[in-house]
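--- STAGE predict ---
source: upstream dedup step, 1 unique chain passed
mode: sequence only
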Amino acid sequence: LLWFVYFGQRAVQQKEQTFFIAAAVFSWIPFLFRMEGIIFAPFYFLFLICLLCVFIFNSQERLAYVKGLTIWIVYSLLLVMILWIVSGAKPVSINKLDVVLQEIDKVAGLRVGQNYRIIYDQLKALEDMSFYPSGNQNFAEVTRHYMPVIYIIGIVEVLAKNIFVFFIIPLVWGLRSSFKRGHLFLIVLAGCYVLIIFYSYIERDFIQTRFLLAPAILVYPWIGQGIQRIVSSIQGASRPGWLAAVCIFFFVLMPLGKYVDGMTSEGVAITRAGEWLKTNMQFQNVRFYANDSRLGFHAGRQREEFVRMNLKFDAEEKKRGITLEQFAFEKKIGIAAIVISKKKADLAPTFVHYKKINEFRDKKKIVMIFCSPDVCR
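--- STAGE serialize ---
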């Protein structure tokens, strides 16, 4: 991602052939690692199209961007041909490209927003459970009317967690500066990425902090610029000492403390639980279920094992009224490892026949390990 950003900026600013080639190459590389990386290649293409339209009457600029577009198109066609040959004429199997194509087909066919409508109808039904059902603007009705705003608040909250909440102040300060061509490339890319995640959020009613890590990284230059402006303002103040102390506390010590705390506590329970499962040989050859892929990784289980066995308990099973324990019996699962937030401990699935054999905790997570009657007699 960062290499693409670097070469993309250099390409649109300096308009040299070397940077156009490098940007074209790195525009596709993020997709090889993450499905959402598919946005970078079309974004780069469309950004060059926009620049070409803006400078259509400038022959020198126009020629440079036509050259950049040609390089991107040629490289993209060559890449598609190579992947087609290597994958045996099945390119849709590459890094969930089939899922991307399905989403594009849904959008084209206007078949999006099914989960949104389900939640909308559920909130509408809740209005009858109000203390005054015949009244207007009860909590469920207001929530139903402002569902998009609530989702936006969710996006902002997750983005704030990624950039550290107090960095919003220097970010706003930094964004007040004028935008050059390279700056525009960065901020539009971050905005497009957030829009894609917002679409996914509404479609799935689910988001994780890491989903917005990329746009958070992209706006950090403006955070740095904002801090620089704050420092300059403090230097001109009559009593800069206490202002400098406040800034050091909020912009240096608190982020550093949060980073150290995250490094020492985040995922400790998952790591310990996975390692415990890995060292217990009696569990090595039994079917394994985990609701967090990281647990499977630390337990030494291959990702392909989950795909092959179809060990996935999702909304379809819940709609059928199947409990997690019934699902485990159906799939003949020997070990079920459940990761849940401490804040949601009361919502942990209950097991009657499966026996809890261990539990691991850290500051945020609880990992409960259950064993089937056949494996743990």
